[in-house]
Specification:
The protein is of the alpha/beta class and about 325 residues long. The protein is built from 15 helices and 11 strands. It folds into 2 domains: about 10-245, P-loop containing nucleotide triphosphate hydrolases (Rossmann fold); about 245-330, Orthogonal Bundle (Arc Repressor Mutant, subunit A), CATH 1.10.10. A hairpin with a 6-residue loop joins strand 10 and strand 11.
């Protein structure tokens, strides 16, 4: 880690930038995340490391989101790696020695994740690496070894539907692992990039001192956030965009329209295998074309049903007569 001694420098550039891009409603969340990350990393003690939120920065193109990520790497003394490919893989221990050595797991300009199976695996892996200290470190040509490694994960995204598929599916089990912030355009970052980096780097030691010694996490952010140092937050505007890209939500809407039209709202559950339900949905005269867009196979239908079952276990019941899963789906 680079020198973290206090320097007699003011932090008006840094605080001005953070205030501008996050606004007053989000600023304390951003500062709290930075403070907890810095406190934990400085201990050098895995037993003292807390679980952490995935920091998601969502804003328009050219807003300066990646600049913030660069500043965070500087704040932590350097060291970053991109975990995106690993997090998408079912084998989350695939060659990842660079991640074992990097305190900042940084993602940006990621390819859209269109397949439900990939997005589900990605969401689970993100959740896992936010709460665990251990990593199955795997260098090429070497055996895996489980090590405690410090990490903070960030992702910067444009506020566009394809880009937002790189956010985890917003479920109850992952919501409290997220810090999703709307990122406004940084008007103060015009001009030469190298000059901007140098300007903020000159304040870095003083900013570390401010986070560690002067900034106090507001009491209202501490309630319910003991595990990660403060409570989670999902910006309401971004949450609406996330819901629009949630394939499971679209699937559930189609289920309701096809299986539970107004004339049978009071009827009991619809029963069948994933294959049978897939046929009901894709064969519907009104909504079949829409269903076929998100249900290329009965396997995809089964995957969606399992996602919804985790969220609403009483609505989506299963039995396994003769080894085949049968579903009983109740109205919304």
């Amino acid at each position: 880690m680079r020198d973290m001694e206090v320097a007699p420098v003011r932090i008006e550039n840094t605080m001005g930038l953070l205030s501008a891009v996050f606004g007053k409603d989000q600023l304390h969340y951003a500062l709290s995340w930075l403070k907890v990350a810095l406190e934990d990393y400085r201990t050098g003690n895995p037993d003292a490391w807390r679980s952490s939120h995935l920091l998601c920065l969502v804003g328009e193109r050219g807003a300066g989101k990646s600049f913030f990520q660069t500043l965070f790497t500087e704040l932590m003394g350097g060291g970053e790696a991109n975990p995106h490919d690993m997090l998408k893989a079912k084998d989350a221990g695939k060659f990842n020695q660079d991640l074992a050595n990097a305190p900042h797991w940084r993602m940006e300009d990621c390819e859209p994740i269109s397949k439900l199976s990939l997005r589900a695996a990605y969401s689970e892996n993100v959740k896992h690496h936010c709460v665990t200290k251990m990593l199955n470190a795997h260098a090429k040509g070497r055996d895996k070894i489980q090590l405690p490694t410090f990490r903070r994960i960030t992702i910067s995204l444009n506020n566009e539907p394809d880009a937002l598929t790189n956010l985890p599916v917003l479920t109850d089990s992952i919501r409290d692992k997220l810090l999703v912030l709307k990122y406004a355009k940084a008007e103060t970052l015009g001009g030469d990039y190298s000059a901007n980096i140098a300007r903020f780097r000159s304040e870095m030691a003083a900013f570390r001192h401010y986070l560690l010694n002067d900034f106090k996490i507001p009491r209202e952010l501490l309630e319910g956030g003991e595990r990660m140092g403060f409570r989670h937050y999902v910006n309401p505007e971004i949450e609406e965009l996330m819901e629009d890209t949630n394939p499971a939500k679209k699937f559930d809407e189609i289920l309701g329209l096809v299986l539970f039209p107004k004339n049978r709202e009071e009827a009991g559950p619809v029963k069948g295998t994933a294959t049978q339900i897939h046929q009901m949905l894709t064969g519907d005269q009104t909504y079949g074309a829409l269903a076929r867009q998100i249900l290329p196979s009965s396997t995809a239908c089964g995957n969606f049903l399992r996602v919804l079952q985790r969220e609403s276990p009483n609505r989506f019941l299963t039995t396994r007569p003769k080894g085949t899963t049968h579903w009983a789906i109740s109205p919304p």
